[in-house]
Amino acid sequence: MRIATWNVNSLKARWPRVEAWLGQVAPDVLCVQETKLADDAFPALSVAAAGYEGVHHGQGRWNGVAVLSRVGVDDVRHGFAGPPPQGASASEARLLTVRCDGVVVVTVYAPNGRAVGHEQYYEKLAWLKALVDHLDAVATPGDEVVVCGDFNVAPDDRDVWDPAACHGGTHVSPAEREAYQRIVDWGLVDVLRARFDDAGIYSWWDYRAGAFHRHLGMRIDLVLASTPLASRLEWVLVDRNARKGQAPSDHAPVMAGFAPRSPAP
DNA sequence: ATGGTCGTCCAACGA
Q: Which end of chain A is more exposed for a tag (fewer CB within 10 A), N or C?
């Protein structure tokens, strides 16, 4: 089973790239962030023609998350199942939970936070905290769960191009990293870090200043698997090719492969 | 030379 996550930065603008990528890579499940679509603008027919069942949670213009699956989708829940976070982000389309082939799939688009100390920064911390309550409401750590998406947090200094240059900004502050750690502590494994301990593996690069070609990025798009699912992990990668060429998103997809479940004894 | 780009939709603003 191949599970991928991709912040596409507008599904309308990116659909040609997403459609081609689905055709070439054929993930079983793709979690999408920043569709920037209202639900009635989601390209359901095109998604179906590509062989996927799509579920979308959007509001138009900003945010918007989706799950595309070719192994079925049920138990759809839009937004928070537990207490929502304080602040405006509670009503934003940033969270969608479904079940695909027995795996609870949670797609997340965490608030950016704007600047350390800004009101939106504290809302981001509250949002990440509310995500833990959401996980408690929809699953237990003994279930097969994957929480993936754009967390807008670089978990440690290996995940940014220059820790000194990033110091004082969002995505790397101790409070954000602690809020992220509480999500992991629910019972999840960062599957990329389970396979690689290298610095310099990124999933996002600023459009400006040739950042991609200069290898100036951050790893903020993460696949977090519960222990029962992580035990089946075979491989994980960042598809940097999807960041190249004409009209790319500023994020690359991250994808993990899981072995089939062992047959019952 | 101290910025540099996208997306939303036409004016800034958010990332």
A: C
